[in-house]
Hints:
The protein is an alpha/beta fold. The protein is built from twelve helices and seven strands. It has helices at 2-28, 33-52, 56-67, 73-87, 94-108, 122-128, 144-156, 170-173, 177-181, 198-207, 222-226, 228-236; strands at residues 112-116, 136-141, 163-167, 186-191, 211-219, 240-248, 255-263. It has a seven-stranded mixed beta sheet, with helices on both faces. Helix 7 (144-156) links the parallel strand 2 (136-141) and strand 3 (163-167). Helix 3 crosses helix 4, helix 3 packs parallel to helix 7 and helix 5 runs parallel beside helix 6. The protein starts with a helix and ends with a strand.
Amino acid sequence: MMWLTLVYSCAGGAALLYALYRWLIPAAVQHHATLALLWHDVFVEWMLDTLTRSTRPQRLLKAVQKNGTRGDPLSVVKAIDDFCRHKEWAMNVGDEKGCIMDSVVSEANPRTVLELGTYCGYSAIRIARLLQPNATMITLEFNPEVAAIARQVIAWAGLEDKVHLVEGASGDLIPKMKERFGVETFDLVFLDHWKDRYLPDTRQIEECGLLRKGSILLADNVICPGTPDYLEYVRSSPKYKSQYFKSHLEYTKVEDGLEKSVFLG
């Protein structure tokens, strides 16, 4: 009888812990920025990394290979969205903000694109699939292990010939764009890397003459985690005409958004 009680207690405790982990805590943090980031991007990632002896990008790649159709960018995007919404959160631009980004890219129809922060290649795929055949896209990723995953995800989408992924720090690579890649100016720059690099990298892009009149800066996560110095700069500078697109932090109900800033010359 004692053993039966112990078994029931353990089973009940395990069920409660699973419910807390799978549903209750994720639901509770849906509307709170700091708690959402701490839960998903610190605790859950650490726990799953420890239990599976793999990394979040590796698990995301497996989901793409299992559920995404090789050579079909939209199916890869969907596989990542499904993984991040139902299995394990990750800081991609996400489906909701991704639709906003798609509209900006389609309207701008850029011939040259620079992305700062590749991560696993989600936004690179969303952008590259909308580009004309003769367009150039360069994406920069600081972490070589993540870059290796991103290359495989981009290749699975069939866009490896359209996306030029370069490893290294943005501050080191931006001054080399003209010499190394033969790009005079970028029609679109997508900022989605370290938030404290948005402003210094934007200033460096300006100083290197990589923007023309009409070039667009599109910045993600300007509210959560937030880039207050960057927002103050592009909204107050006479060099830019800025517009905020209100949305939500990827796969949550936390307010976030994209800032579109058109360079006026």
